[in-house]
From TrEMBL:
PANTHER family: ENOYL-COA HYDRATASE-RELATED, SD19268P
SUPFAM superfamilies listed in its UniProt record: ClpP/crotonase (SSF52096)
Pfam families found in the cross-reference section: ECH_1 (PF00378)
One record GO biological process: fatty acid beta-oxidation
Name by which UniProt lists this protein: Enoyl-CoA hydratase
Lyase is among the record's keywords: yes
Coiled-coil intervals: none
InterPro entries in UniProt: ClpP/crotonase-like_dom_sf, Enoyl-CoA_hydra/iso, Enoyl-CoA_hydra_C
Organism: Paxillus involutus ATCC 200175
Length: 289
């Protein structure tokens, strides 16, 4: 088994090569690109480096288009949401642009952002937010819509500052924070508008992992994604669907839903492959069939 330090170094080299493969001339503010070394892993890039990836009207529209594409791409088994620029994740809504918008435009933007994060949350494959910089307001809400969150070890600004700006989280933050953190911690985070460091965010349960120096959140996200995509893609999708319904359904109804999801997997080719691979003492080769 590879040591943690060796895994970290190999992942870092991989992510550096990946960064070099990204077109620096791209004008898209959000785009999807598969990992060159493993097309089963794709990255959803936020690409407004000059504004710490603050969400503009253009970025929101492109995020919607990206998610529509990802949703129907069965070759993607895990999606990592990340920044194209070092030291960034998402600083929330673009407040400079916001000042030029009419009340109708603001309302349309908020409805669109809520819908977009709902689409992200409901993607059929596992999703990971790689938080390598400030995750504020709508940026943290975006990460809440992912299945798992990883913060870079040196990140110092993770929070929901809306009450200090005279508003409240408006893209699902109040609702997802309660589901993720519990009522008391969600109230504390939102009422105080406090900023958390990566270590504090891990302690609070806002993030699931913190990278180990000198690795980035993206480095750690790649390791996690690789652990995920080695498993059967149909099973991953069924597991995500069943888990996502757990908080909405009474226990017995949820158990019935789980059973129905389980039964559908028993007749798949991947299930047969798993049994044959186990018997032959070899890694299974899953095809999503």
């Amino acid at each position: 088994m590879l040591s943690r330090s060796l895994l970290s170094r190999s992942s870092s080299v991989l992510s550096q090569a990946f960064r070099r493969s990204i077109s620096k001339t791209s004008t898209a503010e959000a785009f999807v690109q598969p990992l060159p070394s493993d097309p089963a892993i794709a990255c959803l890039f936020l690409n407004r480096p000059q504004s710490k990836n603050a969400i503009s009207i253009k970025m929101l529209q492109e995020l919607q288009e990206c998610l529509e594409t990802v949703k129907f791409d069965k070759s993607i088994r895990a999606l990592v949401v990340r920044s194209t620029s070092v030291g960034s994740f998402c600083a929330g809504a673009d407040l400079i642009e916001r000042r030029t918008m009419t009340a109708t435009q603001v309302n349309k933007f908020l409805v669109g952002l809520r819908s977009t994060l709902g689409e992200l949350e409901s993607l059929p494959m596992p999703t990971i937010a790689a938080i390598d910089g400030p995750a504020l307001g709508g940026g943290l809400e975006l990460s809440f819509a992912c299945d798992l969150r990883i913060a870079g070890h040196d990140v110092t600004k993770i929070g929901l500052p809306e009450t200090s700006l005279g508003i409240i989280p408006g893209a699902g933050g109040t609702q997802r924070a309660v589901r993720l953190l519990g009522m008391s911690k969600a109230k504390d985070l939102i009422f105080t508008a406090r900023m958390l460091t990566a270590a504090e965010a891990l302690e609070w349960g806002v993030v699931d992992y913190v990278s180990t120096a000198p690795s980035t959140a993206f480095d750690r996200a790649l390791q996690l994604a690789q652990d995920i995509v080695k498993n059967a893609p149909l099973a991953l999708r069924a597991a995500k669907q069943a888990l996502s319904r757990a908080t909405d359904l009474p226990l017995e109804t949820g158990l019935d839903f789980e059973k129905a999801s389980y039964d559908l997997l028993l007749i798949t080719k991947d299930r047969t492959e798993a049994l044959e691979a186990f018997k032959a003492k070899r890694p299974p080769v899953f095809r999503g069939e």
